[in-house]
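Hey team,

Filing this mostly as a record. A colleague (T.K.) asked me to run one chain through the structure pipeline before their review meeting, and I want the input and output archived in the tracker in case anyone asks later how it was produced. No errors, nothing strange. Just documentation.

Input sequence:
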Amino acid sequence: DDLLTLVLEVGGQGYLGSISQPKLPKLDGWKDVGTQSKTEAAGKSKSFGGKKIFEVLLRPEKTGTLTIPQITYATYDTEQKKYVEQTAGPFQVQVAKGKGRPLLIAGSTATPAPATAAKSEANAPQFFGEQLAYIHPDLPTFAAAPTPLYRRDWYIPICLLSLAWVALAGLWRFWRNYTATHATDLKERSAGGKARKELREAGSALHAKKLDEFYLKLGEAVRGYLGVKLNRSASGLTLDEIARTLGERGVDAETATSTRDLLETCDQARYMPGAQTEDSARELLNRAESLLKMLDKKIIAGGKAK
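Output structure:
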């Protein structure tokens, strides 16, 4: 009818909170009712050492000689620098048959008055038999851990997007440095494309029979092209200066003279309206396109031959 308390004490130096309960072997003939623990620190802090006490309540399930097997507990020996095992037991307990009375779970602690036997019996312990239910604290509940960031679907795309932004920033910086150091070269390379675009605009003006606008755009296209290629201001280039500079850059006299005559024709047509016809204007446009192709091959930057 009695419960057996098995006391396990683990002591030493260090943090007592890290001591776990020794694992019990299989207990034949015993029922583990529950365990409670307490810590007895050597000082005010658990880190100074002391001992931790585990009290295991066992209830015998049969009579006779019952054995509690040997209990083993492994600890780390800092001097030997290895794990060592401490053992205790086995223990033998003689269990006799009880009187079959139910367990005592409630009773009065008041001292009965010697007045009457009825009052004494009223203060006697009350028994409720097998209605006894041991109270166990509710176990804590744990929510599922959230999915780590690196396992979420959007993690890898975000990382790749960040790398893409870094790459774009690097390319943008490279391009800015390149355009700053090669501004002249880039301008010369784009001069032909810009001039051809302006020639197409001049052709549109000719198609609309706007001859004044046609000669203006045609002259500006050729002068702008020469200004970039010769590294001069287009508005300040005179016809004689154009012919002389082209010769210095390796252009033959015939091409230089043809360029000078084309620009002179554009200037005369602007100041003498009606002197040119649409056919002559169309022929001048074709000459300008052919001249630009020829100059692309013959103009040499810095006056050095290819």
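Quick notes for T.K.: The longest helix spans residues 155-181. Strands lie at 4-12, 30-41, 50-60, 64-68, 71-77, 82-88, 91-95, 104-106, 126-127.
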